[in-house]
Recover the amino acids of this structure.
């Protein structure tokens, strides 16, 4: 299979944009940054002084007739400069550590908050494994970028500048020219090859994210995979991405070896030329043995950081590539933003109104057509209809996961687009049809409805949802961990946890979206009685499949192809002998057939 990549190598303007985005996090600790820069320069000055001290020692020892004692001062200076070149570097890293870790923390938190601010549409379309891997690689990239760009590229350039200046001041200009020519050739070669290699790195990242997404998706759906015996099929799909990753990884490694070999050749040629010039100077008597040692020490000292400069540049380019997708998440626009200075929702009575609402998830397929109804304060309105009629879309619009394409959704006369989303959702409680729990304890999942609630309040909510007895029967009680997405609990048990969570939230407006669909008949009746008690005096929207659960509703809306086809009480709708009456008759027949089978 041909390897593809997700796009061209990143442009410099994007890289600089990424780097500029990190600057505000650095300036939070201006003093530490300044101190780190000062220590950086001090470390490099000490490092460059080491060969100078070594030259003095060699020249002193090369005059045995004049030597009355060992050059102790030179030896001590040599030892001190070596110590300080390392000590200042370690002190610099120590000073800068808090800056780096705080920046990583703040960026990660910003991405996390932004992901929660994005629309439901984004989260329905995203791939969890790929997003998590992008954030993981991006966070590592930030740490590498801050540490190595500031403390490896900059110090290396400072050291090269100091060495070139010393060679120019002390020796023939040819030494400086050879040094600079070697540097320019090395940098040009490194930049050119690294840009070419970025294609392979991008492909590796893309295939890695896709493989991780496939693995997580398969493991989340473990039971489905087992039901259909598709372990081999899942492995083949996973391996397709791994094969592409392997091909890109091999090309990445081979190109790296070629790059390293070319860099070593350039350095070797430069060092050889400089040593030839120095040796010629010694033979002619224009340079001492100490000068020869000095030039050699400088070149050996420069070789390591210069070689490391190539590595650091490559890794910084890789880090920027790793950070691209993570920062791309921050550039994802919030589809449903709050208006600037949006006030909090003021719930007085709790009346909800859908005022001629039109909506479609995309322009090609409209779901709701002029839906118009009101839920008076403290009343219960039920919505029924076939699958795809638009029932659950109503709750998503009420929570403002999406904005209506036409018309308005009002609470106590306030357009929900004009108030803050936080206050809107604080006023509404929902028990969804598909309950998803956190991989934590039962207590945590119930308390999530109101994190500051006391243990007694959590237990009362569990009792009201008729799940306290079940929880107490478990070996770990309320500390029982429910597993990924609550898979350790049955559908009915998860549903009751969701009901308890909503009861604990205690909102003025309630939404029950097929709230008892996963319960058996006996439990359903008990829960219905409890929900009826809780809903008393609250504005309640019930989205139902079983019509027997909503016969007490103040008004029932029958949805058909995104329109309100019928409305009225249970008795009124039966008398109309329309869609509702037909649905009621069918369900009565089904329940009668089920009772015969049980008997």
């Amino acid at each position: 299979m041909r390897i593809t990549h997700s796009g061209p190598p990143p442009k410099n303007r994007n890289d600089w944009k990424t780097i500029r985005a990190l600057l505000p996090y650095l300036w939070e600790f201006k003093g530490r940054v300044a101190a780190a820069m000062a220590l950086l320069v001090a470390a490099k000055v000490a490092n460059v002084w080491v060969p100078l001290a070594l030259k003095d020692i060699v020249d002193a020892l090369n005059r045995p007739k004049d030597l009355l004692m060992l050059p102790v001062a030179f030896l001590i200076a040599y030892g001190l400069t070596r110590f300080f070149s390392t000590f200042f570097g370690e002190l610099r890293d120590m000073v800068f550590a808090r800056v780096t870790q705080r920046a990583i923390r703040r960026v990660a938190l910003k991405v996390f908050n932004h992901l929660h601010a994005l629309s439901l549409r984004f989260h329905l379309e995203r791939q969890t494994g790929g997003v998590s891997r992008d954030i993981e690689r991006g966070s590592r990239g930030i740490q590498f970028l801050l540490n190595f760009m500031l403390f490896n590229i900059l110090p290396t350039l400072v050291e090269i500048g100091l060495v070139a200046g010393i060679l120019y001041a002390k020796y023939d200009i040819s030494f400086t020219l050879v040094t600079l020519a070697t540097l320019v050739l090395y940098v040009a070669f490194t930049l050119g090859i690294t840009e070419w290699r970025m294609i392979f790195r991008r492909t590796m990242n893309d295939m890695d994210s896709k493989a991780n997404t496939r693995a997580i998706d398969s493991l989340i759906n473990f039971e489905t995979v087992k039901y259909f015996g598709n372990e081999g099929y899942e492995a083949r799909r996973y391996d397709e991405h791994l094969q592409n990753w392997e091909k890109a990884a091999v090309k990445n490694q081979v190109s790296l070896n070629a790059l390293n070999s070319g860099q070593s050749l350039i350095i070797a040629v430069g060092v050889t030329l400089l040593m030839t010039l120095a040796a010629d100077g010694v033979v002619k008597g224009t340079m001492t043995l100490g000068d020869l040692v000095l030039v050699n020490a400088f070149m050996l000292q420069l070789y390591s950081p210069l070689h490391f400069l190539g590595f650091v540049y490559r890794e910084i380019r890789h880090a920027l590539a790793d950070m691209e997708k993570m920062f791309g998440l921050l550039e994802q626009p919030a589809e449903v933003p709050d208006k600037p200075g949006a006030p909090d929702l003021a719930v007085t009575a709790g009346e909800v109104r859908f005022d001629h609402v039109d909506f479609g998830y995309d322009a090609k397929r409209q779901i709701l057509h002029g839906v118009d109804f009101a839920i008076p304060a403290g009343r219960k309105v039920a919505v029924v209809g076939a699958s795809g009629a638009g029932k659950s879309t109503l709750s998503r619009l009420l929570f403002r996961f999406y904005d209506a394409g036409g018309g308005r959704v009002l609470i106590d006369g306030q357009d929900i687009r004009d108030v803050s989303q936080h206050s809107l959702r604080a006023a509404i409680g929902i028990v969804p049809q598909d309950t998803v729990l956190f991989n934590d304890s039962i207590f945590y999942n119930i308390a999530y409805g109101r994190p500051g609630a006391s243990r007694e309040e959590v237990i009362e909510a569990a009792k009201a949802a008729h799940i306290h007895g079940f929880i107490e029967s478990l070996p770990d009680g309320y500390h029982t961990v429910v597993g990924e997405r609550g898979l350790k609990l049955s559908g009915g048990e998860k549903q009751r946890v969701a009901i308890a969570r909503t009861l604990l939230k205690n909102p003025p407006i309630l939404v029950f979206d097929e709230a008892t669909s996963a319960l058996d008949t006996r439990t359903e009746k008990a829960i219905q009685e409890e929900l009826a008690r809780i809903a008393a005096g609250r504005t309640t929207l019930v989205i139902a499949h079983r019509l027997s659960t909503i016969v007490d509703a103040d008004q029932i809306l029958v949805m058909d192809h995104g329109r309100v086809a019928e409305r009225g009480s249970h008795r009124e709708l039966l008398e109309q002998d329309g869609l509702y009456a037909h649905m009621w008759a069918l369900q009565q027949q089904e329940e009668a057939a089920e009772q015969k089978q049980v008997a």
